[in-house]
Amino acid sequence: MLRSRPLGPFVTVAARRSAVVASWTLISRATGLGRVVVIGAVLGPTFFANTFIATNVVPNIVFSAVAGQALGLVVVPAVVSASSRGPRGPRGHAAELLGGVGACLLTAAGAVTALLILASPLLAWSLTFGIDDPVVGQQAQRIAVLLILLVSPQVMLYTLAALAAAAQQAQERFVLAAAAPAVENVILIVIVVVAGVTWGTGHEVGGVPHGFLLTLGVGSTAAVVVHTGLQLYGAARCGLAVRPFRRWWREPGALRVARRLRGSLAVPAAPMIGMYALLIVAATVPGGVVVVQLAYAIFQFPIALGARAVSIAVLPDMSGSYERGDRAAFAASWRQALTYATVTGLPAAVLLLVLGESVAHVLASGEMRSPDVIARFAACITVVAVAQLAAGMHQIGRQGLFARIDVAGPRNASLALLIMTVTIAALALLVTPGTMRLVILCVALLLGELAGAVITLVRLWHAIRPEKFADPAHIAVAVIATAAMLPVVGVGWWLLDTNELGTAAEFGVLVACGLLSLAAFTGAARARLLHLSGGAT
To answer: What is the average per-residue pLDDT within 117-136?
Structure first.
């Protein structure tokens, strides 16, 4: 097999699709990281920064309670199936399915948004209860209530955006679906910078100008409006316009998808609830939410480029293979996904473990540039460097199970993740507020993802048998190629550790080290694959 396909999964259609998704996802994640960096630089390590960032996460958490990432994982296989049969022609049947599912989800999102508005005082209290000064705590709580009200429409907007993105993925159109979030991030970055220039930086909750506060709240929702509009345009362009219709319950396909989404509710909701628990505890440390969100953005970076990109690209093929009953093709697609996730996860882990302190020093800018903040950030990066590996395995395992219309496995994995994350986050409250508390929160993230990964991979292994679960030869190539990076990474660490460099120079060394390390990885991987294939080109 290796002789007939010398470059294995690296030259398959799935890999090329993954590269397209990864390229645009790289831009999206880079702007997402830049968004948190800019917010931190403008707002600083303050309780107001904690409140603003945490309340901006609330719509995503509530959206996850409606469907979240499970929407794409459930809708894509359903649309692929609908496109292959139906008396009205392939896209007509699929469009009706999308319209029914859209009406169902928007009804649910509207109801949940109303509950969010009603529960805003309780949510605001949960995000500010750890502030010791009662006056500052009350001021932060009032600001949190206002911000939650301003961002609450985002729940319905994200629901529409996710449905439109799923429609594009089902038609194997990945570019706009992956790129649209970057537009949202860029718009919010501009809004935060303009607000900082206009009203100043580093405000604490007791001295935030009203115009500053309203600009941030309204601006963040306006950015999501643009994001949603782009996704809807992309869906319409590929022939699957999202047009919700009344009496959606009369569409049998929509009812089946709705029931499947209801059964998979815990899959996206549990991790987001766990994340909310982390933010609650992080908010007890001034600027703690900024640090945790920065670490989380870095944690998401390799996952988005690896596990998420490849699973999005491979999911239609895996769903089609399962629909046809082709076990061998399904297993082959799964092995490609597993290999590619390993290829992206291992180098990222090495780079972050070795260069984490320098990464923290470069990203902690503006009001966040203090020794204490940098030390906390660097410690958190060390933990998430390992956590992203576990999360990548969890991600592809979960999507592999969804392609098989298996909801129970991902649900059990997500519940295990939630229990582990919340338990360890609660234990973090027992230590003194500071660096150790934030590090324990990142450990909670690591162990939660590890629990989810074990459950999904074991279940998928049982489902794939007797087909081969993994490709040991190609995974070994990834390990060997990662080892080939170590000399380059070591030189980069030495340069950064022994020289007093400015931020720009330090950033340049980091970029050069990263690029040279990846070049070493790619060269070693290609050489090893050619060796395995007997020198074929």
So the answer is: 91
Query: How buried is 132 (Cβ within 10 angstroms: 0-12 exposed, 13-18 middle, 19+ buried)?
Result: exposed
Higher confidence at residue 93 or residue 197?
197
Helices 288-303 and 371-403, axial angle in degrees (round to 10): 40
Report the alpha-carbon distance of residue 444 to residue 115 in Å, rounded.
29
Among residues 400, 262, 427, the alpha carbon closest in space to that of 337 is found at 400
When comparing pLDDT for 99 and 203, which is higher? 203
pLDDT digits (tens, 9 = 90+) for 39-48: 999 999 999 9
**Domain assignment present for 407:** no
Other C-beta atoms lying within 10 Å of the C-beta of residue 27: 16
| Cβ contact 147:55 at 8 Å | yes
| pLDDT (tens digit per residue) in 115-125 | 999 999 999 99
CB atoms within 10 A of CB 90: 14
Contact 294, 37 (CB under 8 A): yes
487, amino acid identity? P
3-class SS at 326?
A: coil
Q: Which domain holds residue 179?
A: 17-264
Residue 247 vs residue 111, higher pLDDT = 111
> At CA 441, angle to CA 438 and CA 447, rounded to 5?
145
Domain assignment present for residue 211? The answer is yes
**Is residue 291 packed enough to be buried (19+ CB in 10 Å), middle (13-18) or exposed (0-12)?**
buried
Write the pLDDT tens digit of every residue in 376-413.
999 999 999 999 999 999 988 888 887 777 778 888 99
Q: Taking a C-beta distance cutoff of 8 angstroms, is the pair 230, 180 a contact?
A: yes
The pair of three-digit structure tokens given for residue 457, joined into one six-digit string: 């991979």
- The letter for the amino acid at 30 is A
Domains in the chain, number: 1
Instruction: Examine residue 394 and state whether it is found in any structural domain, yes or no.
Output: no
Q: What is the mean pLDDT of residues 450-456?
A: 94
CB atoms within 10 A of CB 287: 28
The Cα 183–Cα 409 span in angstroms is 34
110: amino acid identity, one letter: G
Coil vs helix vs strand at 430: coil
pLDDT of 332 above 80? yes
**Side chain identity, residue 336:** Q
User: By CB neighbour count within 10 A (0-12 exposed, 13-18 middle, 19+ buried), where does 124 fall?
Assistant: buried
On average, the pLDDT of the chain sits at: 83
Q: What is the DSSP letter of 407?
A: -
Distance of alpha carbon 40 from alpha carbon 277, whole angstroms: 20
Average pLDDT over residues 94-107: 73
Cα separation, 98 vs 482, whole angstroms: 43
Residue 337 has a pLDDT of: 81
For residue 368 the two structure tokens come to 């966040």
Q: Residue 120 has what pLDDT?
A: 94
Query: Is 496 a member of any domain?
Result: no
Q: Which of 257, 401, 297 is nearest to 36 (CA)?
A: 297
